[in-house]
Amino acid sequence: MQALFGQLLLGLINGSFYALLSLGLSIIFGLLNVVNFAHGALYMSGAMVAWLLAQYLGIGYWPALLLAPAVVGLVGVVIERTMLRRLYQLDNLYGLLFTFGLTLVIEGLFHEQYGNSGNPYPVPEVLQGGVRLPFMYLPEYRAWVVVVAMIVCFGSWLVIERTKLGSYLRAGTENPRLVQAFGINVPLMFTITYGFGVALAAFAGVMAAPIYQVSPGMGSNLIMVVFAVVVIGGMGSILGSILTGVGLGVIEGLTRYFYPPASSVVIFVIMALVLLVRPAGLFGRQK
Amino acid sequence: MKKTVSIALLLALAAPAGVLAQGKGISDGVVKLGVLTDMTGYYSDLAGPGSVLAAKMAVEDFGGKVDGKPIQVVSADHQLKADVASNTARKWIDEQQVDALVDLVSSSTALAVMPIVNEKKRIALFSGPGTTAITGDKCNPYTVHYTYNNWALANGTGREVVEQGGKSWFFITADYAFGKSLEEDTSAVVKAAGGKVLGSVRFPSPGTTDFSSYVLQAQSSGAQIIGLANAGQDTVNSIKAATEYGLTKSQKLAGLLIFISDIHSLGLQTAQGLYATTAFYWDHDDASRKWAKRFQSHPDNKKKAMPTMVQAGVYSSVRHYLEAVKAAHTDDADAVMAKMRELPVNDFFAQNGRIGPDGLHRHDMYLVQVKTPKESKGPWDYYKILKTIPASQAFPSVEAQKCPIAVKK
């Protein structure tokens, strides 16, 4: 019973990661209609940049938490301005293929330079150690990850659903010409959105760096799961991706406990089932 | 009458074959080695490009020629997939006349190419895989298992840990041929030494990055020792999770297969104190230091990493193969295998190593412990060598191997 509670908590921790990543993916898809396959690679870049900052400039975790997403977000802006922008008019399959190619290039470059077995990134000093709960030992850093992920997820949701900027964004995706006619710079909004989505991925990467090794493969390990989360939650639904992210983390944790060999497929089984019953996803709207 | 005719016929058929075998020399005028390894995946740092480099260094040291004929090295990425490995092996042998396959890291790919080398009579020099089945019940006359096997790892680390008082064990096992075999072998050693095995959890590999849930199960098992029957990035990630969840405060980790690249990637802070059994450590003696530094500073070694035991084993196995080709004056697999078994291995990697009729290369192994950050004097200064395990104790005897072709003889 104790172990079960432990697994539930672990599921929650993993789920908050899934939520953080699928959130960025959902925002980009919801507003730009681009299936951003490069999300995993950008997540990895966030972790890599944090590691590079520590390695070569001696910049620690806390500044990196802001710096790395800023750097990677800027790269995202450049990608959007110079390349992705040209694909908006086309079928979104083109965006998917382009970002997939981008993933291979980014991962390839890091792999070539830093090998595959990863590099250590220490947990910041303040968060070392843990709390002994009645049913498990909870590392402080993991608790911190859950709290931050929840705050970021909720904050993003608020901005998009409840603010003026958010309403411009949503309107811009519905009818860009009309919104532009009101004097709003729609292309700039798209750039900001993509940059923000990318920065979110990079932020998750920095959060992940002390937990996993910082290695070029860390994004591709996760991206398939995150895509499944987004599909189950409903492409473009922000609330959907947050809730399913957390929920699937818990389900995966429980599978690891009861029948480990199935843990790597359980999410995809659920995805298949959901697609059969509700093709638009649990929280998705049929277009 | 009928009998005489058939005997005559047989003789007629046999005679030219015999003549051919004698005068075979180097077929198609070139000795070709194919390094089939994991170039980009989980094991690419411990084998991968470093294995290709090691093979090339062995060829360089041979002057690029054996018995007057050029030596060529080709390489490919098997992506840790058995089907890719067997397809590549078949293509290499059929279309490119590759004479020997090298490395084959990961047991599943090694087991997949074994029937092919057996059928086509080509030689496989395995340096990366660990499963004991290679020279056990699945053995064939054309395979050499060169660097280490799971039995050696289990006996080295497993026995030592039990002797130091680690009586109860729980395993975190990679769910494929290699991991399961390592768990079985170590369980047997633990039980034989008077310990007991409380259980195990098997995780999908590759594909698992988060080990916290397995670590938690290991923790709640209450075992004194948590045996890690996994390799490469899996080991690294499981050690990381174990440290994070405070497992190392009340229980001890025993990494059953640890490569120096794993230690490098973990950092000594996390890895300190771990026991490991290894076939090679660069800082062992003058010869190993000399070779390792050459490897490290080679222009092809972009990461400037020290060689792992797999990579050192690749060099040594290729070199031994070439020596055998030179001595046999042919690349005919049967003749070369006979020479490889006949000649001892003496280089920086092994002293008086011998390849048995089962194909297992028996040589000394080392039990090492990872240094603390204070003990380490610099980069790659990671191991204290606790003892040398002599070949006769490090590897199972031919009889114990249950290899059908070795037992018949």
UniProtKB/TrEMBL annotation, chain A:
InterPro entries listed in its UniProt record:
ABC_transp_permease, BCAA_transport_permease
Transmembrane stretches, start-end: 12-32, 60-79, 91-110, 141-160, 181-211, 223-251, 258-277
Q: Which UniProt keywords apply?
A: Amino-acid transport, Cell membrane, Membrane, Transmembrane, Transmembrane helix, Transport
Pfam family of the protein (one): BPD_transp_2
Q: Does the keyword Ribosomal protein apply?
A: no
> Where found in the cell?
Cell membrane
What Gene Ontology molecular function terms does this protein carry?
transmembrane transporter activity
Which GO biological process categories is it annotated with? amino acid transport
Question: Chief subcellular site?
Answer: membrane
Q: Kindly list the GO CC terms recorded for this protein.
A: plasma membrane
Q: Which domain of life is it from?
A: Bacteria
Membrane topology annotation: Multi-pass membrane protein
The similarity comment for this entry is: Belongs to the binding-protein-dependent transport system permease family. LivHM subfamily.
* Protein's name according to its UniProt entry: Branched-chain amino acid ABC transporter permease
Lineage of the organism: Bacteria, Pseudomonadati, Myxococcota, Myxococcia, Myxococcales
UniProtKB/TrEMBL annotation, chain B:
Under SUPFAM superfamilies, the record lists: Periplasmic binding protein-like I
The residue range of the signal peptide is 1-21
Give the record's keywords alphabetically. Signal
Domain Leucine-binding protein: from-to ranges: 31-371
Report whether Signal shows up as a keyword of the record.
yes
UniProt lists the family membership as follows: Belongs to the leucine-binding protein family.
**What protein name does the entry list?**
ABC transporter permease
Q: Which organism is it from?
A: Anaeromyxobacter diazotrophicus
